[in-house]
Each structure stands twice: as C-alpha cells, then as structure tokens.
Amino acid sequence: MPLPLFSLMLCVFGVGTAELVVAGILPAIAGDLDVSLSDAGLLVTAYALGVVIAGPVVTLAGSRIPRKPLLLGLMTLFVVSNALAALAPGYGVLMTARVLSALTHCTLFAVCIVVASGMAAPGKEASAVSKVAVGLNLATVLGVPLGVLIEQHLGWRAAFWSISGLSLVALLLVAVMLPADTAEAEGGAAAELRVLRGPRVQLAIVITALAMAAVFTAYTFVTPILTDLGGFDSSTVSWLLLLLGGGSLVGNLIGGRLADRALMPSLVGVLAVLGADLALMALGARVPWLLIALLVVFGAAYFAVMPALQARILTSAGDGAPTLAVAVNIGAFNLGIAFGAWFGGRLLGLDLGLRVVIAAAALLSWAAMLLAVRELSVDRRAERPAPSDAAATGAPKTSAPPHSPVPSDAAAATGTGDRLSLERNR
User: Fold this and answer.
1) What CA–CA distance (Å, rounded) separates 130 from 255?
2) Three state DSSP letters for 84-101
3) Helices 156-177 and 3-33 meet at what angle, rounded to 10?
4) How far apart (Å, rounded) are the C-alpha atoms in residues 29 and 94?
5) How far is CA 65 from CA 45, 154, 181, in A?
6) What does residue 53 show for φ and ψ, rounded to 5 degrees?
7) Higher pLDDT, 424 or 314
8) Higher pLDDT residue, 378 or 208?
9) Cβ 311 vs Cβ 425: under 8 Å
10) pLDDT score, position 383
11) Torsion over CA of 256, 117, 74 and 53, rounded to 10 degrees?
C-alpha cells in the first residue's frame, strides 16, 4: 500500500477502534466510575448520535478548508479527545470526550475517502477507497480485541491512551506523506449542498442505508445465531467471528477491484450474493459446517459492498463537491446499522425466532439490490447514443441545408465528457 494511503488507513483504523472498543470495555468503565451499566451504555449511544447528527454539520463548516489542513485539524481533535477520555476523572468528562471524538468521525472518514479517490489513477478509485476502508476491517478484527486485552491487563484508561498514541502516529504520517495538491477546497457549502440535492446521490444514500440495515438485522444477533441455531459452544464464538473478520478483509479488497471494473454490475451482484447467503443461512443454520461457510461469505459480501457504495456516491456527485455527500452516506451507514439492530430486535420481541430475523435481512438486501438494478438500467439507457431522426424513421440521408447549425467544439467536448462520465458510472 502506498504510504499516503497507509496514513489514511491508519486514521480510519484509529477512529474505527475508538468507536467500537467501548462496547468491549464497558463493564470496566462502569465499575471504575461507579455508574450503572445502562448509563455507561449511553457512551455508545451519544457517540452514534454525534456521528449521525453532527457529522454533516461539521462537514459543511469545514467545506472551505483545504482537505489536508482539515484532516490534520480533525485528527488533532481526535487525539486530544481520546487523551481526555483516558484522563477523565468522572462520567461527565468521559461523555464530553466521547462527544468530541464523535464530532470528528463522519467528516474524517469522508475526507479520507475523497482524498484517497482523488489520488488514485483513473479507473482505480474504488480500489483506493477499499484500501483506506481496510482500517475499519482491522478495527473490528484487530483493534477491538487488542483494546479489550489492554484493558484486561492495564485498565480501560490504557486502551484510550493506546488509541490516542496510535492516532498521533497517523497524524504525523498524514502531515509528512499526504501531498498538498490533493487538498483543494471545492466551492464551499453551496456547492456541497447542490451535490447532495441530486436525485442520483440521494438514491445512492438510500441503497447504502438499506444494505446496512440488511447486514445488521442479522449481524446484531450473530452470537445467538451461532449458539442457539448452530449449536456452537460460546467459547468458540470468538474464533468463528475471527473467521468472519478474515472473510470481510478479503471481501473488502475484492469488492474494490470489482467496483473499479464495473461499478453498478458489481454492486448488484454483491447485494444479490448477500441476500442469497442470508436466505441459505435462514434455511441451513442448524448445519454447523454450512453455517461456518455462510458466515465467511457473509463477512466477505458485507465488506465487498462497502467500497462500491462509496464509489457510487463519488461517481453520482460527478465533478461537484462530494465531501458532504460522502459524509451523509457515512451517516446512512450508521442509520442503517441502528435500524437493522432495532428491526431484528422487534422481530425477536414478537417471538418470530432467529430464522425469521435472518430471512428479513435477506429481503432487505434484495430490496437494496432492486434499487441498484434500477440505477444500472438508467445508466445503460443514458449511455446509448440517441438515434438521428433519419435513422429513427428509416428515411434516406440527405445533405444538410446551407444554414443548418453545426455543433460547436464546446458542445462536442461536452458530449464526450458526458459519455466518459456515464462509462464511469457504469
């Protein structure tokens, strides 16, 4: 991985670990600060709300700041907020530190994705995005287990010190390795809002929310799926989740390459595979070896779809200012996650069972796939050249009248640009 992309990946790794590790060290925090487990759980809730609500606002506020200085500023706030969490004398200060950290999350992810895409060679944008997104895979597979291990031996404060120190390294790498010419501002808040109003961008965001709802309707209950349906002992769940993480790492890299070759066909295909995998899981979850195989495919499909969803936002934005659209798309990821967890829980609350939960996740995935199919068909219709009147009617060609308008060079150039843009979207 090129060092500039590695520095961005390390930023994503730090932010992803900080978001997820709290769930693993929650009992230690609650015991040390003398608060209930439910109150400690609000640290997770407050962070998620900060990402969804404040993220687009922070992105708009920073829309006039060149991207490299903006990224350095966000990482500085992130390093400081995690150091503050490590030093927190009480629950209130820790909550403040978590909220400050959440303020950086959405915009930081969005800027990393946009900068990575801008540095990539033409046709390699999705692969660049997938390499940066590996940081999120590693946060799940490596960052969280290491954070829990550090908490068990050195205390929960040491986990936050570790995140702050690692993120400081990432900040220094960004300062040294990231080229300044990738950091130009693109028209401010008005340009960002114009891009966000585009119907193609909005539909891409809806597809993202549906896809993530599908994943987390099932993934939220992965442990009872493995133990209650698959019959696995609870002591083996962590190893099975490690297999899922390995599948997600491979899926992320493959998904980026597929999206570079054919963005919308690959997005349709991965969503179809995700839905089929979930449907088979609902039917065959009681067969242990089959469940393990389906779990690995589930992880691969889940993370294969992520670079394609982000690349679709970038291509839908065209030559406009895409940072806000990417930030809102990241908010849609979190919204889909929240809805999926709630929806799956409601189905279980109705005593419908885990199989119904998994089947419902499959239906959500196929709903996202149908929207992607619609977008693919629109792209393909738009890229077909419009036939001339003569060709359409079968009339013989005639020479143009003396005063017929001749297309200007500018118009011809615009047509060429449109065709190239449509080919990228495809």
Assistant:
1) 8
2) HHHHCCCHHHHHHHHHHH
3) 160
4) 10
5) 29, 39, 13
6) -85, -50
7) 314
8) 208
9) no
10) 67
11) -70
| Nearest Cα to Cα of residue 25 among 41, 45, 12 | 41
Write the CB contacts of 294 (distance below 8 Å, at least 6 apart in sequence): 277, 280, 281, 284, 285
Helical pair 91-119 and 37-49, crossing angle rounded to 10 deg: 30
Q: Which residues contact 94 (CB under 8 A, 6 or more apart)?
A: 29, 33, 43, 85, 88
Distance CA 42, CA 49 (A): 10
From CA 369, how far away is CA 280, in angstroms rounded? 17
pLDDT tens readout for residues 260-307: 788 888 889 999 999 999 999 999 888 889 999 999 999 889 888 887
C-beta of residue 321 within 8 angstroms of C-beta of residue 187: yes
Task: Report yes or no: 166 and 160 within 8 Å, Cβ to Cβ.
Answer: no
Write phi, then psi, for 66 (nearest 5 degrees): -55, 150
Pick the more confident residue, 191 or 333.
333
226: nearest Cα among 217, 215, 235? 235
pLDDT above 80 (res 191): no
The pair of structure tokens assigned to 412 is 């011809």
Q: What token pair was written down for 64?
A: 């006039």
Q: What integer pLDDT is reported at residue 366 of this predicted model? A: 94
DSSP state for residue 234 in the 8-state scheme: G
The distance in angstroms from the start CA to the end CA of the chain is 26
Mean pLDDT value across the chain: 79
> For the whole model, what pTM was predicted?
0.69
The distance from CA 336 to its chain's CA centroid, rounded to whole angstroms, is: 11
Task: Give the integer Cα–Cα distance in Å for 114 and 128.
Answer: 10
CA distance 40 to 22: 9
- DSSP conformation class of 402: T
SS3 of residue 395 by DSSP? coil
Do residues 134 and 116 lie in contact, with contact meaning Cβ atoms separated by under 8 Å?
Answer: no
Distances (CA, A) of 365 to 17, 158, 166, 302, 359: 26, 39, 36, 10, 10
Instruction: Kindly give, in sequence order, each residue whose CB lies less than 8 Å from that of residue 342, ignoring residues fewer than 6 positions away.
Output: none
Mean pLDDT check: name the lowest of 97-101, 105-109, 236-240: 236-240
Query: What average pLDDT does this structure show over 298-317?
Result: 80
Residue 411 has pLDDT above 50, yes or no: no
Mean pLDDT for 61-87 is 90
